[in-house]
Amino acid sequence: MRIDVITIFPGMLEGFLGESMVKRARDMGIVDLRTVQLRDFTHDRHRSVDDRPYGGGPGMVMKPEPIFDAVASLSAPDARVVLMSPQGRPFTQATARDLAAEEHLIFVCGHYEGVDERVREALVTDEISIGDYVLTNGVLPAAVVIDAVVRLLPGVLGAGEAGHQQESFSEGKLEHPQYTRPPEYRGMRVPEVLLSGDHGAVEQWRRAQSKARTRARRPDLLDGAD
Ligand code: JCQ
């Protein structure tokens, strides 16, 4: 998969990408990930990527020309062009699976008060939000989406980790509690059933725990959403 990220803060993304599982995927040649400096597509002396809003008001708006030119420089007519913004459709595991099936993703990271609406009209194919809060720019949201997508690409997770994808959110429920050694720590015992060796009983216990935890913390998931 090819991923391009258009931003005025490429260093923010490179820091994350140089450490995470995404680095492993890059080293293995599974993902070809590049950052594109938006300021390289400006034409004025100050390399401006934003300007004052027509109609007045506070804040600045991202200019259309550098964004259109940056995307055009990638000459990728078939790529999905993803705008990260609080106004987007909420990001879910289903969105991650959908994007993981693509050949080429281009992320446009917004800043300031927003982007000129013509970018949405004529360039962006997907507008995605990672949650109902406002950040200073779209780089961290893009990193979140990239992380969720890249771990789904074949070969990125180890054999042991891969089957795990089927559980939890993919099945629409929260994870059951997990324990490892020792069997007692500071007076807290691991539930007896997990030490019993009875795989059927363990499975039953985990299912019940998962359901109870989902009902308590995320009842919205039990209504069949995603
Ligand atoms: C993404 N949840 C929050 C901030 C404007 C495109 O316009 C803007 C983009 C941002 C950055 O993204 C977020 C965000 N999901 O803040 C303001």
Topology:
Elements: E1 2-7, H1 10-17, H2 21-27, E2 32-37, E3 50-51, E4 61-62, H3 64-73, E5 80-90, H4 93-100, E6 104-109, H5 117-122, E7 126-129, H6 139-150, H7 159-162, E8 184-185, E9 188-189, H8 192-195, H9 199-217, H10 219-222
Bound molecules: (3-methoxyphenyl)methyl 1~{H}-pyrazole-4-carboxylate.
The CATH topology label of the largest domain is Alpha/beta knot
Total count of domains? 2
Radius of gyration of CA atoms, rounded to a whole number: 22 Å
* Top CATH class of the largest domain: Alpha Beta
Distance between the termini: 25 Å
Query: DSSP helix count?
Result: 10
Count of extended strands: 9
Protein model, in words:
The mean pLDDT is 94. The chain has two domains: 2-158, Alpha/beta knot (3-Layer(aba) Sandwich), CATH 3.40.1280.10; 168-222, Orthogonal Bundle (Trp Operon Repressor, Chain A). The strands form three sheets. It has a five-stranded parallel β-sheet with strand order 2-1-6-5-7, with helices on both faces. The protein is of the alpha/beta class and 226 residues long. It is built from ten helices and nine strands. The chain has helices at residues 10-17, 21-27, 64-73, 93-100, 117-122, 139-150, 159-162, 192-195, 199-217, 219-222, and strands at 2-7, 32-37, 50-51, 61-62, 80-90, 104-109, 126-129, 184-185, 188-189. Helix 4 (93-100) crosses helix 6 (139-150).
Characteristics:
226 residues, alpha/beta, Alpha/beta knot, Trp Operon Repressor, Chain A, 2 domains, 9 strands, 36% helix, elongated
Short recap of the structure:
The protein has 226 residues and is an alpha/beta fold. It has helices at 10-17, 21-27, 64-73, 93-100, 117-122, 139-150, 159-162, 192-195, 199-217, 219-222; strands at 2-7, 32-37, 50-51, 61-62, 80-90, 104-109, 126-129, 184-185, 188-189. The protein has 2 domains: 2-158, Alpha/beta knot (3-Layer(aba) Sandwich); 168-222, Orthogonal Bundle (Trp Operon Repressor, Chain A), CATH 1.10.1270.
